[in-house]
Amino acid sequence: MLPLVLLTVQLVAGPGLAALLEEPAGARERVLGLVAGAVVALALCLRRERPAAVLGVAVVAGAAVDLTLPSSAGAPVLWAADLMALYSLAVHRRARTAVTGGALAASAAGLVAAVKAGSPLELPAVILITAVCYAAVIAFGRLRRQRVGSRRRLVERLDAAERERVLLAAAERERLARDLHDVAGHHLSAVTVHTTAALRLADRRPEMVAESLDVAVGMGREVLAALNRLVDVVARPSEGGPSESGQTLSGPAGNPPDADLPGRLAPLCAGLVRLGIPVSVTVSGESRALPGETVAAAYGIVQESLTNAMRHARGAPVTVHVEYRTGVLDVLVRNEKGEGRNDDAEPGGGRGVEGMRSRVAEVGGTLRAGPAAAGGWSVHATLPTPTPSRRREFGWPELVDLTAVAVCAGLPLLAVTSPAPLVPTTPLGLAALSGLLSAHALALWWRRRAPVATLAAVAGADVLWAGLTLADMIPVSWLLSLALAWTAEAIAVYSLAAYGPSARAGLPGTAVTGAVGGLLAVTALSTDPAEQPFTAVDAVAGFAFFGIPVALAMLAFWGWGAAVKSGRGRSRAWERSMAESMAVRTDHIVRAERSQVAAGLRDAVFEHTVRFVRAAEAALRGGPAGERRAALILVAAEARAALAGMRELLETMERSMDAATGARP
């Protein structure tokens, strides 16, 4: 489609444009222009796949037409072909490649201008206009690339979140299955083994029947108490508070931890304090933003350690210490020995510690867990973190800023160094002028990080320039070079609107640049002999006459920056809304899994356990040996049924986890 459109423009607009410019083209020129336009138009079809080659074809064809034909008006397609190719190069290739292509294209234009230049000023003018046009095209192309890349990364993040959402249910099942196994599996197995042995030996040792019933009542009550706590955890909707097991129901699952680790740990530990568990948190070192996976690992370690402390050292004080060191994050959780502590047992039956080791290994860290020297238990994790760099990384934004500094400081020197200079000066004067222009433009390097200071520095350089001129320390003619460097003021105003605290903050910047422009105009007028005598009224009139148009012109750059800032804000707001939506969906999944497990517990385990506990209690309150033996048979059957139901529930959960894991892309 594009070649047809370009060739149509070539055929329709070419002759008319040549006549309008009073550059008539003969048959030879029209044929050659048509051929060159057709070649470039066909090449532009590949501008997305091979933008560098297409740019080369466009530049070579344009240079050949300019050098061989008396006028390029018969081939208007060539006027825009290099810009279109350069734009595609900036969009589809790296910044370095785009800048290199632009520099080579500008060099080719300069060589053609050097051959065909009719006056000394034509060459620098062509170079300046070409450089500015190419720089603008590259900038717009890079902005397009950044926007497309941002959208692509967001789509990838959403896809990853969707995949993680699919696996989240399996992860929640795994955690609940671990807790179910720990709280019920051991006791139910013990009841089953003990009652079976008692029935086998009942004829020879009838006293074992009562002993076994008593054991069944004790262990059954413990199972019921543990199941009640677990059912309460899984059945309650997420409220953002800590659960009985020490888990925050809307914690990592429903609301993934962000880079603020101390901020995430504070509500977790505060919730346990409200439950009567003394937990203290200390943070040392310089707190800084960390990768999400590191924060998630540290949060999970603290969460699991607090859960284990609740289970095995109930009532014992717990200390959490987070230390930020260079390249390392240290997390230490230590609890003293509590009344319910079993010194021979690893917390969580070993499952929790193994889970922590796996989580730490995923981020390349190490973990030590074991009894503390003074009693109790300690968990110490060392997680590697990226070392914060105080130096500014050099990427595309830095390349743009460096180019802005070079353009604002270097291009005005063309008025001095050309064969027919507009501003005559000596070598020493050239050095001084270069220093002033560099000081005027250098602040643009910090325009993103400190836009207010950048505009203040640029305006301050203008005021200094005016003062030196009025003091006869520099020639008045140097004001022309400063006028050519006023792209710095435009860039500073744009940056104040785009990167400042608010878009409105750029409005005073337009007034400042207008005032500085009026001051420089008054400076030039006051030193012009033709304007003498120069009165105060003349100064006010000149200030207003030149300052107001400058301020109005700067409004366009302020509007551009404000539009960029607004678009960036809308994009971030949309990303936050999508992340919040995913978090809500994730929380719903977790709650659904918890409710499903709670229902399975009631059907498969809870009811059988209640029946054998009631039967054992009734038999122990008094009754003949036959009834006790029958009760023991019922206890054994119900305990086996509860254990089988628990195992079936665990197997169902495991199959669901395997299915979810196998379905992961």
Structural summary, described in words:
It is built from 19 helices and 5 strands. The protein has 665 residues and is mainly alpha-helical. Among the domains are: 116 residues, no CATH class; 130 residues, no CATH class; 96 residues, 2-Layer Sandwich (Heat Shock Protein 90), CATH 3.30.565. The chain has a 5-stranded mixed sheet with strand order 1-2-3-5-4, covered by helices on one side. Strand 2 and strand 3 form a beta hairpin. It is elongated. The relative contact order is 0.08.
> In angstroms, what separates the terminal alpha carbons?
38 Å
Q: How much beta, percentage-wise? A: 5-15%
Largest sheet, order of strands side by side?
A: 1-2-3-5-4
How is the main sheet built?
5 strands, mixed
β-strand number: 5
**C-alpha-based Rg, rounded:** 39 Å
Give the proportion of residues in helices.
over 70%
- Class from secondary-structure proportions: mainly alpha
What's the shape?
Answer: elongated
Which H/E pattern describes the elements? HHHHHHHHEHEEHEEHHHHHHHHH
Put simply, the count of helices is 19
**What is the average per-residue confidence, as pLDDT, rounded to a whole number?**
76
Low-confidence stretches: 235-258, 341-350
